[in-house]
Amino acid sequence: MNTHILGIRHHGPGCARHLREALETIRPDLILVEGPPEAEALLQWADDQMQPPVALLFHETETPRNSVFYPFAVFSPEWQAIQYAREHRIPLRFMDLPATHNLAWHTLKNTDEVPEETTETAIHADPTGYLAEAAGYADGEKWWEAMFEQRRDGMAMFEAIAEAMTTLRQTLALPETRYEQTREAWMRKTIRQAEREMYSEVAIICGAWHVPALATMPKQKDDNELLKGLPKVKTEGTWVPWTYERLSLGSGYGAGIVSPGWYHHLWQHPQDDGTIWQTSVATLFRQKDMDISTAHVIEAVRLGHTLAAIRALPFAGLDEMNEATTTVMCMGDSFPMQLIHNGLVVSNRMGVVPDGIPRPPLQADIEKQQKKLRLPVSVDYKDYQLDLRKENDLERSIFLNRLQLLHIHWGTKMTATGKGTFREEWRLQWNTSYLIDIIAMGTWGNTLPEAATAYVLHQLNTATLTDVTNLLQHSLLADLPEVTDALTNRLANVAASAGDVLQLMEVVPGLVQMARYGNVRQNDTEKLTQVAEGIITRICIALPPACCGVSDDAATDLLEQMSALNEAINTLQHADSSYLWEQALQAIASNQQSAPILNGYAVRFLYDRRMLEGDELNRYLSFALSVTNAPATAAGWLEGFLRGSGMILLLDDVLWHTIETWMASLPEDAFIAVLPLLRRTFAHFSHAERRKMGEKAKNNTAAQPTKTQVAEAGIDHQRALQALPIVHRLLGITSPANNTTA
Prior knowledge:
The chain is an alpha/beta fold. The protein is built from 37 helices and 10 strands.
């Protein structure tokens, strides 16, 4: 048997092109390719209807998340070998470690039960990096591209690769990991099997690093010892679409390339001197309204060739093309090159697999819904504005919310413009990793509603109050009546036993918000409203004591919750809940042990409701801003009082004067200490409010008490002046020459 070992890079257009030439020369009667043997049963679908990039997906049957991908691009040598075998009707086998052992091995590795390993070195991770450094290149990617991907001779390339890898492994004599030894032993086992079957010409296609290990066959007994007692799990496999973006990451057998779009160009246009590439660049820039002429293209190509000549390269590579583009088309600005990187260097190409390929039931149901609702899968994001009054848009929203319940975040809900509850905005962007999530969630049901219902009910027993509320919110949007009833009952039970008032306050705004969707989605939210009212009752009883003796940070957090709860109660518009809320805030306002910021917020609430006016309000203000209180305490109270709007200061001159007097009475060091607190308070006001306050302070337009007002208040101004000298002496202040005026 004649064996021809062809070492390749897993995604290399030059390797793929020379591999086709080598196969035409060898005319093998059997092709062995690095990959899991279970994939042989799936080769029947690798026909003209399948458009790379695609990937073989193998996952553990019992634990679908334990999975591995083997991606292929049109320029992958393995894909070209598959196509050659199909076109010439010759057998092709995969010779790597089977997925049943591979997945089991990685499961044991995560539990530290795998046999003792030798630490993998950087050379194992990137063996070409060592050769690239010796040749004066910055990394293995550039060296390999220059040496092999743009090479124009055929079989000589594979001989050069074999010689380089053999020298590298012999010279460095690196200890191999047990996993790599096992993989190579299985490859040799497959080669021996082909020899026993009397094949005459066998083409062996493997990663370049493995060439020396397959060129010299050790004793079969040694390989059998390595393969003895391998762990094993039950697996399933299929074909899935892949993307060039995912291909730019290491996956499967660890192969990843940083520029799949560039490699695709090299595959399609092997003789291009840069003209076609720079034309594509110019086209992309013009689509973005950049002024690019034909002269730019010509000069960029010439500069690329000049750079290649200076660097002693046979052809201009991607680096030379990018530098030429930056200089000529971008005028030295590297920022527009991000467009080139995303659109051409990586590319947004996505593969297609035939419809007849077996799919798990849940995946088939989701794909059916995607087509029905006209939601195409794309690696580019697309925004959808849904009007829930329209049947198709409502079904889209339900579908996307059901996926969210299964943690399949294909769609991301955006903030919709306007306040109507009948509008939703979603941004959809597909990621091939969602296929794993779909397969994993398939254990909960064969259809999307079944899986979402079963999975949510599974979480129910261990869910906290906040978790139940979040699940209920998504379940209402996902139109799952069975789940909604179960979650509502669970919510009522958990809320009844919850003792943390903060936790109760967190869930009320969400409950009220859910009730607002009833009109559009036709959900029965009456029971949900009853649960919300019950929680509000518990909050109003427990909140006043909770406001006493808390730290400043805790009080600030509690203020946020109280503000949100107030808005929720206003939205709910239930008389009993509103009355209980007013009584709770009256208790907080009248209790001097309440945190200052919360006390101030409660007073402001009562003032807005006309429950505090006139002398009673002035009494609260005078006490809070008294000089006997610490400045920080007064500033905290003021922050709570002014929470939400500063318009009260613009309309109430007496309040303005009271605050102005308090601030003017502060010593310099105290004023500096409270200034950050005051700044935080006024930062919450709108720009227009702050501007008007500045004008009011500058013009001093606030009404100040006149002598007439003082006299009407029962104060004898002349008698008060007579006491000033004594007050000055008590305070250690030198009496002014004229103490009869103030």
